[in-house]
Amino acid sequence: MIFVTGGAGFIGANFVLDWLVENDEPVVNIDKLTYAGNLESLASLQGDKRHIFVQGDIGDADLITRLLEKYQPRAVINFAAESHVDRSIHGPEAFVQTNVVGTFHLLEAVRAYWNELEGDSKADFRLLHVSTDEVYGSLAKDDPAFSETSRYEPNSPYSASKAASDHLVRSYHHTYGLPVLTTNCSNNYGPYHFPEKLIPLIIVNALAGKSLPIYGDGQQIRDWLYVKDHCSAIRRVLAAGTTGETYNIGGWNEKPNIDIVNTVCALLDELRPRTDNQSYTGQITFVTDRLGHDRRYAIDARKIERELGWKPAETFATGIRKTVQWYLDNHEWTANVQSGAYRDWMETNYQN
Ligand code: NAD
Ligand code: DAU
Questions:
Q1: Helix axes 198-207, 316-329, angle to 10 degrees
Q2: Catalytic residues
Q3: CB of 343 sitting under 6 A from ligand 2
Q4: What ligand has the least distance to the C-alpha of 146?
Q5: pLDDT for 228-244, tens place per residue?
Q6: Which of 185, 187, 263 to probe ligand 2 with, by most ligand atoms within 8 A of CB?
Q7: pLDDT tens, position by position, 11-43
Q8: What ligand 2 atom has the least distance to the C-alpha of 196?
Q9: CA–CA separation, 149 vs 194, rounded Å?
Q10: Percent residues over pLDDT 70 in the chain
Q11: Which sign, positive or negative, has the C-alpha torsion 13, 17, 23, 25?
Q12: What is this structure's pTM?
């Protein structure tokens, strides 16, 4: 039995789905179901006894304690977070509450549980904390990519709150010996990505005939990883990582935003041409830049490859094609997210 927090979000849902394909080990999925949590992403698990969903907050230490005692997991994987940089600029408080205070309460509950374990259960227990490359700040054009020893220089309320949570996790290992692992991953893309983030937003807006907003000059660089590769990396770190260590995860796919948008437009031109046969690139609009916009992220993923033998399976070309095709094939998922209908989904469809 493992616990996953935030398993109704983009990466968490992909992780739970893939986990239950790869393993028969049950998952207790604890998610607050904020605007970003969507049980419709887990629809294929309806009736699957290996998936136990609990609506709850990682900051609710009593709830987490009760669940730990009841299910006795061998590992906890913490995906739960407020994750959108733009939202953190407009309203940072929820980020401090969940990412910092919530992680603290989760750590306290897990520490108390782990303290009571004995023998192999205690020795084998792991808490894996899922973090981001944004904690390292912004790179100049010719700087080397972020390694595990790069200095933390978070620039947005989001990345600062993630950095704070990473530090708390680290301290629980150093001070109490809690067996923790931390992963710092680059930008993910793929199925079930909420259309407030760049790639799904561009796909959804393009198909709706809306403008495709590019912040500033569109030359900011991100390092893109297909979400299922992130999930396989987390499984690998959980299985073979050394506790107390951090692992950077990335796809060696640095690209300026404008290139990403042009690539998505080219795929849509091929797979779902506009009725007027013009390119979707005609919908691109340059808009006011994000406040404090980080210029470049890049992950040096050599440690996880060298020590754990992990490499991404997808190239950007294969991953982005799958992603665009997924959105074309799953229009209803997107429409429900946009209309808010997914909020009613649990009551009407979910039996667990
Ligand atoms: P997301 O916003 O899609 O999902 C977050 C999930 O957490 C949602 O289901 C939400 O309901 C849940 N949640 C929020 N607050 C909660 C709380 N207090 N208690 C329990 N559940 C809560 O985010 P995502 O993109 O799937 O990111 C997952 C994790 O991975 C985050 O920790 C994020 O920082 C990290 N990360 C994301 C990326 C990326 O590109 N998306 C890259 C690297 C790391
Ligand atoms: O690097 C990992 C991080 O990647 C994760 O920790 C975050 O949770 C995740 O949201 C993501 O953060 P970004 O800010 O990089 O992702 P976002 O999709 O919001 O933006 C990607 C780039 O595209 C960024 O440079 C801002 C730009 N952008 C974004 C949007 C939504 C635009 O130009 N236009 C847009 O409309």
A1: 50
A2: 133-134, 158
A3: no
A4: 2
A5: 999 999 999 999 999 99
A6: 187
A7: 999 999 999 999 999 999 999 999 999 999 999
A8: 31
A9: 31
A10: 97
A11: positive
A12: 0.97
- Where the chain has pLDDT below 70, the residues are 345-352
Distance 147 CA to ligand 2 centre (A): 20
Tell me if the domain spanning 2-186+226-251+296-314 has CATH number 3.40.50.720.
yes
Q: 187-189 and 212-215 as β-strands: parallel, antiparallel, unpaired?
A: unpaired
Q: Domain coordinates of the chain in residue numbers?
A: 2-186+226-251+296-314
Best residue among 3, 4, 11 to mutate for probing ligand 1's pocket (most ligand atoms within 8 Å of CB) is 11
Q: Which two tokens mark 157?
A: 């309320």
CA distance 55 to 73: 17
| Pairing, β 254-256 against β 221-226 | antiparallel
C-alpha to C-alpha distance for 280 and 262, rounded to whole angstroms: 9
Q: Could you give the CA distance from residue 235 to residue 19 in angstroms, rounded to a whole number?
A: 8
What tens digit of pLDDT does each residue of 169-220 get? 999 999 999 999 999 999 999 999 999 999 999 999 999 999 999 999 999 9
